[in-house]
Design goal:
Two copies of one chain form a homodimer. With 193 residues, chain A is mainly α. Chain A has nine helices and no strands. In chain A, helix 1 crosses helix 2. Chains A and B meet through helix 1, helix 6, helix 7, helix 8 and helix 9 of A and helix 1, helix 6, helix 7, helix 8 and helix 9 of B. Chain A binds a DNA duplex (30 and 30 nucleotides) through helix 1 and helix 3.
Chain lengths: 193, 193
DNA sequence: TCAGGGATTGACCCGTTGGACAATATACAT
DNA sequence: ATGTATATTGTCCAACGGGTCAATCCCTGA
C-alpha cells in the first residue's frame, strides 16, 4: 500500500544517517559532509534530497517523532482500560532501545534549536499536543477534567525531565527506573481526592 | 572583602553579554563578535579574557548557575523546618525573573553541549549534585532515606521538565503554576506511606 | 615626566561549511 | 535504440568565524 518511491527510500536512509550523526555531533557539529559520509554518499546528494540543512533537520525530527509515536501506538492498541492506557503511554516513552543517551543527545540538540527554527517549533508543538492528548484521554474517567489536564502536564514534564536527566548523566537512570518513578507519581496522584 | 580586580569586573560584564547573546542565538549562533558587540567591545578582548570560546561558555554556565544558586540559598536561609526548606528549593528554582523563555533557551543550548564538552559536563554534574543534596537534606526526617533519594530525583526531573516545557512552549506555563504543580507532586508523595 | 605593563583594537590568516552548478551516469519509457 | 528525467558526483565559491599578532592606548607608580 505505501508504494514508496526510490526517492522516499533514499530520503529515509539519509534521515537515518543524519540522526546518527546528530547523536554524536549535535546540530552545530552535524555537517552535510558528515551526513553524506555516514550514508556512504556525497554531500551533493544530501542537499539534492533535502534542499537545505534546516529542512534536513526538520525531516529528521519528524522521523524520530514517528518512531516514538509508533511505539506508543503499538502499546496503546494492546491496552484496554484507562489505567492500561496510561501505562502504555509511559512505557512507550521509555522504550529501552530508545531511552538511550545518544538518542537523548540528538533530541536535546534539536529541542535547543526550536526557539530559532519555526519548522522545528511546529513539529515540537505537534509532539507535545499528542502526548497531552494521549494522557488526558486516558486520565478522563479517573479524575475531573481540570485535574486531568494538570496531571497530564505534570506527567509529560516529568517524562521530559527524566529524558533530560538521562542525557546529562547517563549512569543515573535506566528505562525501568524511569517508568517506576513516573508510575509512582501517577499512583500517588490517583490516590488523592 | 571581595576586592575584585578590574579584570574580574570586565570578565563579568563579558559573561553577562555572552549570556544575553546566548539567549537569542544559541551556542552555535553565538559568535565572539556578537558577544563583543553586545558588550560594546572588540572581538579580541573577549578572547583576551576567556582564552577560547569553549572557556567562555564554561564561565557563562558557572555564572548562570551561581545566580540560580544564590536565589535558592537566600530562600533557604529564611526557612526553618524541612517543609519550608522544600518550598524554598522549589520556589527558588522558579523565580519569576529567571523562569523565563530566553533564560531557558540559553540553558537549553548549554545543556545540549554537555555531552560533547567535558568542562560543561563537570559544571552540570555540580549543579545536579547540589540540587539533589538540597532536596535530600530537606526530605530526610519526612521519609526514609531510600524514599528521599527517589523523591529528590523525581522533583529535580520535574523541575527540569517544567523548565524545558517553558522553553518549548512559552505560553503554557507561569512561575506560580510551575511551583504549584511541583508542590502538588510533593504533597501527594508526602501523604503516602 | 617617564617607563612599564596590562587593556584594547583592528587587520590578518586559515580552515570550515552551506550551497550552487555543471558534468556525468543511470534508469526508464517509448 | 534513443531520448528524457532523475540520481549522483566533484568542483567551486563566498561567507563566516575562531584564533593569532603586532601595534596602540591608557593607567599607574616611581
Amino acid at each position: 500500500m505505501p508504494l514508496r518511491s526510490i526517492a522516499d527510500i533514499r530520503r529515509q536512509e539519509l534521515r537515518r544517517a543524519a540522526f546518527q550523526v546528530l547523536q554524536q555531533e549535535g546540530v552545530a557539529g552535524t555537517t552535510l559532509e558528515k551526513v553524506a559520509a555516514q550514508a556512504g554518499a556525497s554531500k551533493g546528494i544530501v542537499l539534492h534530497y533535502f534542499g537545505s540543512k534546516a529542512e534536513m533537520f526538520a525531516q529528521v525530527m519528524r522521523e524520530a517523532n514517528l518512531v516514538l509515536r509508533d511505539r506508543v501506538v503499538a502499546r496503546l492498541k494492546r491496552a484496554t482500560g484507562p489505567r492500561e492506557r496510561l501505562v502504555a503511554v509511559i512505557e512507550g516513552n521509555f522504550e529501552p532501545d530508545l531511552f538511550t543517551p545518544p538518542v537523548c543527545h540528538a533530541w536535546l540538540s534539536l529541542c535547543a534549536e526550536v526557539p530559532r527554527d519555526a519548522a522545528l517549533a511546529r513539529i515540537q508543538r505537534v509532539i507535545h499536543a499528542r502526548m497531552q492528548s494521549n494522557l488526558v484521554h486516558a486520565l478522563r474517567g479517573l479524575m475531573p477534567d481540570g485535574e486531568a489536564k494538570a496531571t497530564a502536564l505534570v506527567l509529560s514534564a516529568l517524562i521530559d525531565g527524566l529524558w533530560l536527566r538521562l542525557g546529562l548523566n547517563p549512569t543515573a537512570l535506566t528505562s525501568e527506573r524511569a517508568v517506576a518513578l513516573t508510575m509512582e507519581v501517577l499512583t500517588a496522584r490517583l490516590a488523592r481526592p
